């Protein structure tokens, strides 16, 4: 399996985990929210918004362009802090999907 194929599979897993955790349906952030210079746009978006509208969109754009993934990546540890209040059954699939994404980017 190519790196792009592995990433697309991990992205599908993240989407499924977000849907199962009821965090997929997010309001589209205002255009200025995307201008944030903070990691994960923490000052302008919720983590689920960032995952859906920034991370997944940028990863898909990199795949479509045939461009290398950025590395190093450590999204999962940051998400663990944000999601610590979520029930384990909803939190773990999200973290595991993000760990796969981190692993693919870090192997680049």
* Major sheet summary line: none
Give the overall shape.
globular
Computed structural class: mainly alpha
Spans with pLDDT under 50 lasting ≥5 residues? none
- Calculate the terminal CA-CA distance, rounded to whole Å: 14 Å
Under the CATH scheme, which architecture would be assigned? Up-down Bundle
Query: What share of the residues does DSSP label as strand, in percent?
Result: under 5%
The number of domains is: 1
Count of alpha/pi helices:
4
Helix residue percentage: 55-70%
CATH topology: de novo design (two linked rop proteins)
Mean pLDDT across all amino acids: 94
Assigned CATH class: Mainly Alpha
User: What is the gyration radius calculated from CA atoms?
Assistant: 13 Å
Q: Total strand count, please?
A: 0
The CATH homologous superfamily: YqcC-like
Secondary-structure element pattern, one letter each: HHHH
Question: Can you describe this structure?
Answer:
With 108 residues, the protein is mostly helical. It has one domain: YqcC-like (de novo design (two linked rop proteins)). It has four helices and no strands. It has helices at 3-20, 47-65, 75-82, 88-106. Helix 1 runs antiparallel to helix 2, helix 1 packs antiparallel against helix 4 and helix 3 (75-82) runs antiparallel to helix 4 (88-106). The longest helix has 19 residues, at 47-65. It is globular. The two termini are 14 Å apart. The relative contact order is 0.19. The mean pLDDT is 94.
């Amino acid at each position: 399996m190519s790196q792009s194929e592995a990433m697309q599979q991990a992205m599908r897993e993240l989407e499924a985990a977000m849907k199962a955790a009821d965090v997929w349906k997010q309001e589209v952030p205002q255009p200025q929210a995307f201008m944030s210079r903070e990691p994960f746009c923490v000052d302008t978006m919720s983590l689920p918004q960032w995952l859906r509208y920034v991370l997944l969109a940028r990863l898909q754009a990199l795949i479509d362009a045939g461009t290398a993934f950025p590395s190093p990546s450590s999204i999962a540890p940051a998400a663990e802090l944000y999601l610590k209040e979520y029930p384990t059954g909803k939190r773990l699939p999200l973290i595991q999907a993000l760990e796969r994404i981190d692993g693919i980017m870090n192997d680049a």
